[in-house]
Amino acid sequence: MSRIRSLITVSLLGSMVFPTAVAAQEMIADTTSRKQALTSWGVQFEELEYRYSDDDEELGVWSADFFYGTDDLKVRWLTKGEYAIEEQAYEGLENQLVAQVPISDFFDAKAGVRFDTPEGPDRTYAVLGITGLAPQWFEIDANLYVNEEGDTSAGLDAEYELLLTNYWILSAAVDATVAFSEDREIGVGKGLVSTETGLRLSYDLVDRAFSPYIGVVHERKYGDTADIAEAESGSTEDWFAVIGARIAF
Amino acid sequence: MKVRLLTGLLSLLMPALVLAGEYNLTVDRVEIDTGDFVKEGIGYNGKSPGPVLRFKEGEDVRINVTNNLDEATSIHWHGLILPFEQDGVPGISFPGIQPGETFTYEFPITQAGTYWFHSHSGFQEPDGAFGAIVIEPEGREPFRYDREYVIQLTDKHPHSGDRIMRNLKMMPDYYNRQQQTVGEFFSDASSNGLMDTIQDRMAWGDMRMMKADVEDVQGFTGMINGKGPAQNWTGLFEPGERVRLRFINSSAMTYFDVRIPGLDMTVVQADGNNIQPVNVDEFRIGVAETYDVIVHPKDERAHTIFAESMGRSGYARATLAPEEGMEAPVPPMRDPARLTMADMAGMPGMDHGDMDHSSMENMDDSNMQDMDHGSMDGMDHSKMGGDDGQPSDPFYAKGSGIMPVAANDGKFLSYADLKAQKPLYEEREPTREIELRLTGNMERYTWSINGVKYEDADPIRLQYGERVRFKFVNETMMTHPMHLHGMWSILDVGAGKWNPIKHTVSVQPGTTVYMETEVDAPGQWAFHCHLSYHAAAGMFRKVIVEGGPDSTQAKTDVAIEEGGDA
């Protein structure tokens, strides 16, 4: 450092002594934000909707994520909720906080924690997953979960957007959950647990920031999980009409 | 110091004898009205675009820049050859101009022609911080004109630069409203057959690439000299006059295809340097490029200057008219461009087409004959290189979906047509070649050189006195206007010593382009893609020129940075 300083001094002296010569300017190091990793953030509500089921159940549902970070490391908060309007109770409430790093051109790996805090017993899971864009434009999000009792499960979400026009978009989404062990307290049996299939027709009203949609959603429980639900006189299959909006900012 | 004081005193006493031109610019928050929307932006002396700075070759200029913003700013003199500390790139030339500060740029004007200036800080340039520079030559110019206008193009967007960058990072197709739809699938299926269409969609889907990915940022209003299409900037002429139009593309992201229906254009300058005149019907102006053209309207009628964006998502329009208020029809935009597999030829793992432009002798010989006769008419190169009567430009991948075609099927300017009027440098063998692969990932909106973003890159080190041959290999599906600061880019069009001298070189997808640089400017310089959001995402380098007459070894030692190249 002292060497650098003395060199600068020398060059400064030089420029004073020989004013006509082009001053030997120091070449500065780039400490501007351009030389730093670009930090970005975003908020997306993939679903923010009202659901009305075939047996007159009403739900408020959201699925959103907030991210902050660089190309190399992002922190993402994913939140999902299903609120039964009549019962005034959360049927499902799930929050994940994950760190996300790129692992290939089109896929990121995620690791973090998930807290399920619906009405009833809570669960905490460790999450390991991948998310990205598969060939033919399928958006994939696959996760492995382990809860504090050692129960493991996996979830796979896939989504495809069909552009009817550049503003009218039909999106198809399938979420499937598989449990590798039973967690009877929260009504999960071993094997394929449930699927949620949705078809939504949206219109980009304000850029891609606000896109109202209507759609249908089909939820179904399978195997042991369905048996548990039946035993508790819950439904194993539901159809919903949905109305809502996609939001991004 | 004393000398400077003395000249300062003298200039105060005898303003008529001032050799140095003094100019004042303020950097201000301004309102920009495109006719479609009104937007707060950044301008100079209260306006965007800022004033046209008129310099004289040979003068010394002093430009006092006062920053009235609440953030740091800078001005880069795009295309001017000057000492590196005057180049105006924060972090490379100087620390920048802080809020409330006045910074005085001082440099000699050693060139003539059409250039421009813009902020090099953040997204101030897309937000409106730019203006034009016109430098009057010391000697006579090799062409005549009766009047001249600056035609400064931009792509004004309703969103701020920061917002656009963030949206692109969140959703890379945020602004793309030309994507292929179900409707296009059926129309393609009926014209190309169902199976072919399915195969085509599958091939692109397999790469996770979009044929429609020509323009990242759509939704702008094209503007000329600060006027949107409805506001119709108008330049007056007397029939029979020769009018010189100094086209400058100050867009953040948009290439424009420019034509003036009913008028031939004679291109006489590219990036400020005289070229052997070429008659064209239409030309594509890359981001940050300039072209000077001369038109010769003979009739008492108006002409539309029509500049469609390369991807056809927007246009700028102005009018040349004998009288204020006259206008000519505004043509409709042509269909949106679609990339082809040829544009993907540069992607790693794809079949490399034979895109090497170093072997363009055949074509150029035929060109040169025409050129040497100085004939300004009847040169039709539009068919050159085309095997099957298809329009062809050697600077595009063969079969490229963005190959330019003139609206009237006439002559579209190619880089291959650009021949220097007077070579600036002796021709000599380059001392070495540096390969720069232009790389990126559209789905992540990351852009880089040789796969490395600026934040992770070492500077490119050049030696004073060498002549470097840069080899650009575009491995992306987008066009990149590469701009080297401080030294000329001698674009290899295969014309030897007549190769044109530019400051910005467009590299089309799937192509390899060479340029040579006489390393004659000590110091450190920026070198980057001039698409604002590509540069900000990392397609940027610092170039350090080591050695040189004004330098001592001490000087290069001061900036301690790791060696190595890009």
UniProtKB/TrEMBL annotation, chain A:
Residues 1-23 form the signal peptide. Pfam families: CopB (PF05275). Keywords: Signal. GO terms for molecular function: copper ion binding. The keyword Methyltransferase does not apply. The keyword Cell wall biogenesis/degradation does not apply. InterPro entries: Cu-R_B_prcur. GO terms for cellular component: cell outer membrane. It comes from the Bacteria. GO terms for biological process: intracellular copper ion homeostasis. This is Copper resistance protein B.
TrEMBL record, chain B:
Residues 1-20 form the signal peptide. Residues 369-388 are annotated as: Disordered. Residues 370-386 have a biased composition (Basic and acidic residues). GO terms for cellular component: periplasmic space. InterPro entries: Cu-oxidase-like_N (IPR011707), Cu-oxidase_2nd (IPR001117), Cu-oxidase_C (IPR011706), Cu-oxidase_fam (IPR045087), Cu-R_CopA (IPR006376), Cu_oxidase_CS (IPR033138), Cu_oxidase_Cu_BS (IPR002355), Cupredoxin (IPR008972). Residues 35-138, 221-317, 428-546 form the Plastocyanin-like domain. This is L-ascorbate oxidase. It comes from Marinobacter persicus.
